[in-house]
User: What shape does this take?
Amino acid sequence: MQSTLSLSFSQASLVIPNRPICGAPSTPRSLRFCGLRRETFGFYPTKKLTSCRFQIQGRRIEVSASSAVAGNGAPSKSFDYDLVIIGAGVGGHGAALHAVEKGLKTAIIEGDVVGGTCVNRGCVPSKALLAVSGRMRELQNEHHMKAFGLQVSAAGYDRQGVADHANNLATKIRNNLTNSMKALGVDILAGFGSVLGPQKVKYGKVGFPDNIITAKDIIIATGSVPFVPKGIEVDGKTVITSDHALKLESVPDWIAIVGSGYIGLEFSDVYTALGSEVTFIEALDQLMPGFDPEISKLAQRVLINPRKIDYHTGVFASKITPAKDGRPVMIELIDAKTKEPKDTLEVDAALIATGRAPFTNGLGLENINVVTQRGFIPVDERMRVIDGNGKLVPNLYCIGDANGKLMLAHAASAQGISVVEQVTGRDHVLNHLSIPAACFTHPEISMVGLTEPQAREKAEKEGFKVSIAKTSFKANTKALAENEGEGLAKMIYRPDNGEILGVHIFGLHAADLIHEASNAIALGTRIQDIKFAVHAHPTLSEVVDELFKAAKVESSASTTPQSVKVAI
Amino acid sequence: MAVSSSSFLSTSSLSNSKSTISFTSSVSPTQIPSLRRVVFRSTIPATSHRRVMTVRSKIREIFMPALSSTMTEGKIVSWIKTEGEKLAKGESVVVVESDKADMEVETFYDGYLAAIVIGEGETAPVGAAIGLLAETEAEIEEAKTKSASKSSPVAEPVVPSPPPATSSPAPAISQPSSPVETVSDGPRKTVVTPYAKKLAKQHKVNIESISGTGPFGRITASDVEAAAGIAPSVASPSPPPAPKATPPVTAKTTNSPPLLPGSSVVPFTPLQSALTNAFIASLSIPAFRVGYSVNTDALDALYKKVKPKGVTMTVLLAKAVGMALAQHPVVNAICKDGKSCTYNSNIDIAVAVAIDGGLMTPVLQGADKLDLYLLAEKWKDLLGRARKLQLQPREYNSGTFILSNLGMYGVDRFDAMLTPGTGAIMAVGASKPTVVADKDGFFSVKNTMQVNVTADHRIIYGADLAAFLQTFAKIVENPDSLTL
Assistant: This one.
């Protein structure tokens, strides 16, 4: 959610990389530091609620309502709406808000509840569970407490209380989302939407007559559902997906987690903190395959090895049978390569975290000759839908998990904003390499851009040099004050021009720290410039500062010290 | 670097090819192997030895170093040097991955990396030879043959065998009804929970030797803890309903008398079994007992004063015993082999505590030296963790003297059993108002407590025990020294 906000804020600058930091080209380059401040002040009258959608909702709503009347009140001549979005998840929501701001008459169709996966069955409730697990972990760690001089008697938890916290948070955020759209005058249309033809959408609830509306542009933002490989029988009780796990209806003694990506890792953090033992089942040869190898190695040392977790790598769970008739959950493992049977596990529960599958069935894609690829809707770099003949479908876009480009809530939102920019007459291509990702374990993992192997491969191909800067949380005052010195930050960059290729952080509040790097990548800021930016001391942000300062860049800073004088 | 303080090289003189740790043996054959650490930590003796040894040719073993206190084995990430390469003292030779970090390990000696015993990506327990270092180029070949002959016995235990994967040949695609049968029909495989596996590795417990008591017969952490001598972390399973349990049990114990109808049999928990063994072993100790009545008026008064500060009677008694033992070291000694008396340098008082399903003896280390309040704090921590069965082995099995107090139940005197491992145990009864006559014939009522010490007569004689008890009584009757 938070990242969604930050992305919608940065819409003005979410341009192709290498644009100057302040969108207004008239801002003199030498006035950069103070120019930034001026720009911030200048934002409010014109941009209204961009920066404050949720935080100060109550106050801002009136402002936004007036803007809504102006923005969403004028329908186009020949269409019911300027923009219709199918799916009110985080992607659709981000697109809708930006569309209203751009003066488009907007409707959003939702067949389930507003908020989609992220708010109801994903990032949001899981953060509530992780907030609990983080505290449990801390309170249970006698050594950690003692190091603070704190004495805490045995920590315990009430499962229902934890589950309620997650559920309440989801409800709260869902209401915030709904209210923010209502306040802006976005029409929320209930029912399942599907594409009837070019610029025509129908929607309706089962058993009710369909409504047909027309729109100048259509965005498909239907998201995804948990992917369950065949052979696995999900009963929702002992064999579950993240949808069930987030309700925390039980805390099994021993749970197998199939898949060691973000979802699996976060749940392992929750379950072990609540007292479960965990067995990971990973098809690839190593755990946490998506992460930078160095980070995943360290993460394994901190998040896996000392905890009540074991793992099987290089195996598929070919068959999982839920517990019944007095038997535990049975998991049959086969070798990922040879497909030979390898082992059978007996556990109390199994969580299927093998990724997510696009939710694109029943969208009427056949009406416009679009063929999905493994369920994903093919799009170009501007999120324009490509049909079966490889041609662009006019006025139809697809964002978020449904296109599979980058299955993250904030990526969907950024894509939605990018589409709105295009349909309102400004060409815009989203740089996906600038989109950060985070895993909210304790400590957290975050990343943006390329991993080291990816960067080295690219460097090899394109013939440039790659350097690595690293810093440890052990050198950070704030981290040490928190007794959380375990952590590593790593930056991959080009020493010739100071371009940041990727940043990976494992440590306390890594998810919050990554944005300095992701913004730098998005805006094309070079290390030799950003290294002069000042960080408050003592803060965790100095970890990233350290990275910038540790980098050895051959080219010199592009800003001159004079600009600082002006600011003073 | 942490490595530089831990030795990883030992030498093996060619003349004595059988011995693996022959550096110490070549210097002084009687030294115990653990001394080689001490020898290697200081570089000066090492150099001087080396000078001596340049006369004789030397091949040294490179050991898997202990990079952290919890490390039991390490993985070779990479060899920085290749076989045959020259090494200078202080140079990094190999990168080892421990449970905590990757570390470069450097050599303390000049020479040549003669042979790599444990290859990259392989794992070896701490202390195992991972490579050989030859002093001169000429010895490389010799070392290589040595490593070849070594590799079979060494490499075998070094690479831990993978967990027994009793791969039940379950078909990948099977009928809806069949899979459950496929699994259950075959011999039951050992199911071990992740934490149980970790604990077994940590405490070096052979998982195969444990029978699981968890759900579905799986081996849980508490099974491993019990096998390792730590009490199980979950209360012993509730007794099974009698009618069900009776038939299988009678079938097993055919030679014991038949059970009376309605009776039930509850097998011992591992903790109970361990205690049983200790009790039976106690019968082999020639023990005797000496009792003493102690006036506790002063102690009771002191107790009232310190109680608000969290000091319990147990702690006061432990402190008093500790101080008395300091004056009578023989009562703190132990007879290990029936031939000698081993005097302990520390006074560590184990205190018997009843816990759910058995008995634990958390140890108050340094009871004679530690300040009363620190002792009380320590005791509170130990007691809490003992009840939760979270004590480390050294926290309950390292006592040099045992204290057992049943006074709180009103017991006036009892006889404690001396189990192997200590020389004496003190049984403390309740302090009760008693009519006593002093030497002038005046009667008064004083709180009196009876203590009874059981001791190993092989090392402790009656007079020793009597003198110890006298000292103890004096301390209790003038307890001001306890708070000093």
Remarks:
- Residues 1-56, 151-186, 232-254 of chain B have pLDDT under 50 and may be disordered.
- The longest helix of chain B spans residues 139-158.
